[in-house]
Amino acid sequence: MGARALPSLAPVADAAAARLVGREPHRRALRSAFEASRAGRPVTVRVWGPSGAGKSSLVQSFLDDLTARGEAVVLRGRAYERESVPYKAVDSWMDALSRHLLLRSYRGDRLELPKDVSALARLFPVLQRVPDIEVEPAQTVVDPHRTRRQAFAALCHLLASLARGQPAVLYLDDAQWGDADSAALLVDLVRPPNAPPVLLVMTYRDAEARTSPFLNELGARWPDGAEALEVRVGPLEPDEARRLALALLGSDGDAARATAASAARESGGSPFLLRTGR
After folding, report:
1. Predicted confidence (pLDDT) per residue in 167-205, tens digit
2. What is the DSSP secondary-structure string of 21-47?
3. Long-range Cβ contacts of 219-225 (<8 Å, 24+ apart)
4. C-alpha span between 184 and 189 (Å, rounded)
5. Would you place residue 160 in the very low, low, confident or very high pLDDT band (cuts 50, 70, 90)?
6. pLDDT at position 33 over 80
7. DSSP 8-class letter at 18
8. What 3-state DSSP class applies to 137?
9. Helices 213-221 and 180-190 meet at what angle, rounded to 10?
10. Is 184 exposed, middle or buried (CB count within 10 Å of its CB: 0-12, 13-18, 19+)?
11. What is the DSSP letter of 204?
12. Which stretch of DSSP H or E encloses residue 201?
């Protein structure tokens, strides 16, 4: 017997209205972590749960609100399962950082750069497009480990400089697809006492946690004293699932409420199933 389809939910006219329903405790946890980082404490938040539970929607909604209110500089990134570039879990962060630095350069609002920024730009060549970042001519690297340490330290100093002007948030989606080299960089980034006062948020699927080189490396090498908060995102509560279904329907009549109740039951509280009707 085939899988039973959910009752059809017509697309809502205002997608923002159905962007996020419920999850108030999760949003409070994210807000508390942000306030701590704004006060000068480096904080990492690990948002995890099953596929389709709405982890990314939760964090994206929270970060969208921060950006809309001008409360923080948000650098967003994502790891991809089939991507094979070096440092693939942070590569898209560097794209976002380079765009931010370019914009500041065009505005004449230059950021204080660390002395070893050229080492960081060698590791992430996208930074070389920033006019203020000068990279010395290519030369033989005698000690690659020393160069990597210089690059990691430069990133810490650069993010600390960024956070001095405005609170900064780093977001990594689908962290389960990250690599061990990226984990080594993040371990250095959060290590006291030189960790920059930024909020680091990552989302990942718990089903892949045991087989992820990135997550295993983070777990094995997480520094003592580095603050981390775990936020589990599970199925919506029945009332929240009905509210989301109604928001997706864009109606509140008797027929809509009946359809929403049926969809909420059949979905098992999965936002993904409610949105796709699968």
Report:
1. 999 999 999 999 999 999 999 999 999 999 999 999 999
2. -S-HHHHHHHHHHHHHHHTT--EEEEE
3. 221/183, 221/184, 221/187, 222/187, 222/190, 223/187, 223/190, 223/191, 223/192, 224/192, 225/192
4. 9
5. very high
6. yes
7. G
8. coil
9. 30
10. middle
11. E
12. strand 199-205
- Residue 52: which pLDDT band, with cuts at 50, 70 and 90? confident
Judge whether 271 and 17 are in contact, CB under 8 Å: no
| All domains of the chain in start order, with CATH | 18-232 (3.40.50.300), 237-276 (no CATH)
Q: Residue 158 and residue 274: Cα distance in Å, rounded?
A: 42
| 238 vs 126, residue with greater confidence | 126
For residue 195, the Cα-to-chain-centroid distance in whole angstroms is 18
Backbone angles phi, psi at 193, to 5 degrees: -100, 5
Determine if the pTM surpasses 0.85. no
Gap between the Cα atoms of 173 and 184, Å rounded: 18
CA-angle at 136, arms to 118 and 123, nearest 5°: 40
Q: Phi then psi for 129, rounded to 5 degrees?
A: -80, -10
Q: What are the tens digits of pLDDT across the range 67-122?
A: 999 999 999 999 998 888 889 999 999 999 999 999 998 898 888 889 889 999 98
pLDDT at position 254 over 70: no
Full strand arrangement of the beta sheet holding 228-232: 73-78, 168-173, 199-205, 43-49, 228-232
- Residue 87 half-sphere exposure toward CB, CA atoms < 13 A: 19
| Alpha carbon distance 51, 268 (integer Å) | 13
8 Å CB contact between 51 and 270: no
Residues 6+ apart with CB under 8 A from 144: none
